[in-house]
Automatic annotation (TrEMBL):
Classification via PANTHER family: ALTERED INHERITANCE OF MITOCHONDRIA PROTEIN 41, MITOCHONDRIAL
Protein name: Transamidase GatB domain protein
Signal sequence annotation: none
MF terms (GO), sorted A to Z: carbon-nitrogen ligase activity, with glutamine as amido-N-donor
Lineage of producing organism: Bacteria, Bacillati, Actinomycetota, Actinomycetes, Propionibacteriales
Pfam family, one: YqeY
Entry superkingdom: Bacteria
Amino acid sequence: MAHMSELKDRLRADLTAAIKGRDEVRSSTLRMVLTAVTNAEVAGKQARQLSDDDVIGVLSAEGKKRREAAEAFQSAGRVESAQQERAEADVIAGYLPTQLGPEEIAALVSEAVASTGAAGEGMRGMGKVMGALQPKVRGRADGGAVAAEVRRQLGAG
């Protein structure tokens, strides 16, 4: 098979270290993440090695699940469960690229709106703009936040 993902290797090495250091949250979170990566590798018709970008996609999805679960637990009054989910999300965040701030997202959206010529199209241009943005923001920003900014800029246009 092709070369292994360096990020996946780092996850495995950190899992071993977490187990040796008896870091329960970190080791259980990394186990779940590595399972999700393995599931992604065997999903579809043919097993494949994931690239670092693919692994970042899996990590982003897992992080989002943890954040959403934390919110759900919090609103249900299950504070301990919410804290557990947040702790797991923090572990996952440590493996993701630095997250973009609102100003950076706004700048990337403006750039994408200009480059796709979607400024005059209003909301019909949303797909075009999101398509241009995806490769630039993958793993670095929440899709909902990006979509909200695209809506804001296209609506204002």
